[in-house]
Amino acid sequence: MSFVILVPVLNEMHSIVEFSKELLSSISEDDIIIFIDGGSKDGSKEFLISLTNEHQNLEILSSPKGQSRQVSRGVKRALELNKKFFIQIDANGRDNPKNIDKVKNLLLAGFDIVCGSRFIEDNKRETPFYRFFLIKFVHVPICNLRSKYKWSDTTQGFRGYSEKFIKNYDFVNKYWDKDGYDHLIDISMFACKDYKCMEFSAERRYFINKKSKFISKTLFTYAFRFFKKAIFGK
User: Fold this and answer.
1) 160 strand-pairing partners
2) b/e for 120-147, b at 16 or more Cβ within 10 A?
3) Alpha helices of 53-89 — where are they, by DSSP H?
4) pTM exceeding 0.85
5) 69, 85, 98, 57: which is closest to 200 by C-alpha?
6) Are 119 and 87 in contact (CB under 8 A)?
7) Domain count, the chain
8) Cβ pair 61, 76 in contact under 8 A
9) With contact defined as beta carbons under 8 Å apart, do 68 and 177 qualify?
10) How confident is the model over 197-212, as pLDDT tens digits?
11) What pLDDT, in 10s, does the model give residues 80-105?
């Protein structure tokens, strides 16, 4: 089948070497991997360029910083390649590529949006307590007030989308200029009223990278946009 794996990248040299090995061993020969670099300064992009020279099913794109922007550019390229199923996974090593088959199976079963959850099969054990508390008792309940599907986890970037969703939702144009994580918020809150959604069990491996990048200005910007959408909608 026609799967593409979209990997937003920003200064991931601490994890990208091992992650890329895991990813390449977890996909089929027909899959395409598109890395979308958001302006890395630590050698991540150079490493990926060397990797694309060794593997024909890899591409690397450049994008302005911001996960929604980066993913939208990857989706645009995947549509140009006539791909039918879209899988997003972070490059920081916290998501295990071995779970890609779970995403594929759910998309093939007819679901339009599938999302990883650390709260299925007790995969939360590596999650720092403050993240566990904020996700479980703040983020998830607020998203579920808006969402038709009742999620157990709403912050993971390990997700899968059908062609129907990507095209009908106008994903590329909607997030082309969004510099944050808007697509993750919007999909968790609003998309399930029109599309079939499902979660799958996926551990979060925080021991891979103990230094969190989700702090400071990024955290406050995300929190502002999250509560604004929760209160006022899109």
Assistant:
1) 87, 114
2) eeebbeebeeebbeebbeebbebbbebb
3) 67-80
4) yes
5) 98
6) no
7) 1
8) no
9) no
10) 999 999 888 854 445 4
11) 999 999 999 999 999 999 999 999 99
